[in-house]
Design goal:
Elements lengths: L5 E4 L8 H10 L4 E8 H6 L2 H5 L8 E6 L3 H11 L6 E6 L4 H5 L10 H15 L4 E5 L8 H13 L4 E5 L21 H10 L4 E5 L6 H5 L5 E4 L1 H5 L7 H4 L9 H17 L4 H5 L12 H13 L8 H4 L2 H4 L3
Helix pairs in contact: 1-12, 4-6, 6-7
The structure holds flavin mononucleotide.
Length: 323
Amino acid sequence: MAADRRLSIAPMLDRSDRHFRYLLRLISKKTRLYSEMVVDRALIHGEPSRHLDYHPAERPLALQIASAEPNLAARAVARALPWGYDEVNLNVGCPSQRVQRGGFGVVLMRDPKRVSEIVRAVYQETGVRLSIKHRVGLDGDDGYSFLARFVETVALAGAEVFIVHARKAWTRGLDPKANRSVPPLQPEKVYRLKRDFPELTVVINGGMTVQSFERQSSRVDGVMVGRAAWERPWSFAVADRLLGATTEEADRARVLSAYQQYLEEMRAQGVRLARLLKPLYNLFKGEPGGRLWRRRLHELAQGAQEPSADLLQLAPLEATREK
Ligand SMILES: Cc1cc2nc3c(=O)[nH]c(=O)nc-3n(C[C@H](O)[C@H](O)[C@H](O)COP(=O)(O)O)c2cc1C
């Protein structure tokens, strides 16, 4: 049933900030959104509102944390509790050298016991059941039994939601970008996980689009879309209908005027214009006028255009008259 299925937008550092999420929320009310990754210590020792503040409209919203220490993870999640996120997710998929040095991310797949301890500690301290985002394996640890043992162990500790990037990671020799395209996708392993652990919620990630949602529905519990959401945010205009909503599809002219209002509120709070414009660049990608739109946004961000310029006036006219 569509209502139980998850369609989500992936955590993406430097992309899925609150402004991108707000724009996506104007386009789809029901897609589940994820924050950028936040390291446990940044929440414990830093100014948490810098990482945690969001607009109430963004929900359903998940916070993604990175942690390798049960007690730090528990303290970080406790710190985030008052913000009322709908889900807290643990990053067990990132292969970057910096993340590896911290002992977080994909290298934790080799230590399911530690991940279990993190899941238990967070639950005991906060009552939050972490969801886990991981890969199908790493380096030579890439057999199905390695993956299944990881999931089984962590599920025994109480985790119920597993979001699986359907490719393995190489911890050496590939940077994070190459690690998102060079290792081939292995969706069959994710389907098999769902068959072997039917009681768990299994979401597939890697090379998905909004359109994949229906195709994947018979095999897994949902789809998480990363790059395609950034590249084609407007593709999510059909998402609510796929998720069973009967409300009207979003209209780009209305989305733009609502975003303009948001942009003005945020600017009044001191947020830089360039940061607020960044999520809009791909809104007309691949359509007539799409390049001109990007150029105009760029000029606006550089201060070459009137800062009070009306976004709607900059938009390709045909595309906003589509309805
Ligand atoms: C710019 C960028 C930043 C990312 N940052 C994170 C992150 O903070 N946490 C995480 O778990 N994955 C991160 N990822 C990985 C995505 O969440 C996703 O797993 C990956 O891009 C594969 O999905 P896709 O093929 O739909 O893009 C990032 C990906 C990109 C492109």
